[in-house]
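Forwarding these from the shared drive since the link keeps breaking.
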Amino acid sequence: MTAATHWRTATTPTGPITGIGGTAAVVAASKTARSAYLGSLDSLRRTAQREVYAELLKAAHTYEATTGAVLESVGILLDGLLSKQEGLPRRHSSSERSAFRRAISSAADPEPVAAAARQVELEGPSRVAAAARNVRATAQQLSTTLNSIEDTDESLRPATPADLPREHFELLKSAISTFAETARKHLNHR
């Protein structure tokens, strides 16, 4: 090989340097495609999360509104039970008390909240799922309290302190607020 031929071989554009550049281009294109694919998946996942979070908030706010609407009836029943125990006349008739009990029983169904919370638990992440479990637990706690008033034997002292339904209602409101804040932080975090 002559010196002139050797010089042409070393500077040929199809030498090893071109192969390295081609490999880098393929790797870069692969990373770009992967990033676009994962970005689409992340967008779909966040959309699904947003939808189940919204469903839980809708169910929880509906439950809050319906239980809040019967808190006065709860107080009336508890006052009536205390009046009877103390030998005082009741201010409401038997049919009115029955209507109060029906309204309380109807309002105290936490199942829509529980079902929506289970969906949030599936979508996650764990801190949002924990907040959803708390909403479900406080809704169940309020339901138990309200139904214990309905099921109270009127010849006995009320098993539920008069302020307990309101306390459990406030706990529910707090749990809903905490869930909303936790979900918002998650959805806005990148």
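-- next protein --
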Amino acid sequence: MPLKPKFDSLYKLIKGKQNAHFKSLQNNLQANLNRRLAIVEEIKNLINPQENIKDTLKHFNELRDEWRNIGPIPRDKYNHVWNNYHFHVENFYDYLHLDREARDLDFKHNLEQKQKIIARVEELVNEEDITKAFRELQDLHRIWKEEIGPVDREHREEIWNQFSALTKQMHDKRESLFANQREKEVANLERKKSHYCRN
């Protein structure tokens, strides 16, 4: 078989497999998105005083667990879907006439988890390896958003502001590190230029 037709047929085969792979990825993202939207709807519908509170709470916790285990969704939809989910989770806590004790225990647990994250970010601010620290910070943001539920109204704003302020410190530190690196690169370049000009 001459080389060109052989190459063409192999190229076509590879392209076909590549397209099928990307199509499958797209379909998975879309399926995950659809399931997450359905969970938001289900949480919305949990606010029903006619139902037994224990059953409702059990269903809510199952939905939250499922949410955590769903894979990625299209990037451009992430913030909107997450904000929507978070809004309805908070609504569930705030407006459903929940067994106060269960709700307060959950709030307390969530607050403790968020305080642990804040303590860890305080350590990361002083971490030498800023790139490594920044990667961990991104993981902690994901855990804060995806895995830990809301805290009581009284602490909500304060704890978020603490976390945001520390995150800003990390961003500033990273930015100043990059600025220093850029300055060094420019200085090195200038040194090289003047060295070549002399020779």
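The chain has a mean pLDDT of 84. The chain has six helices and no strands.

- D.
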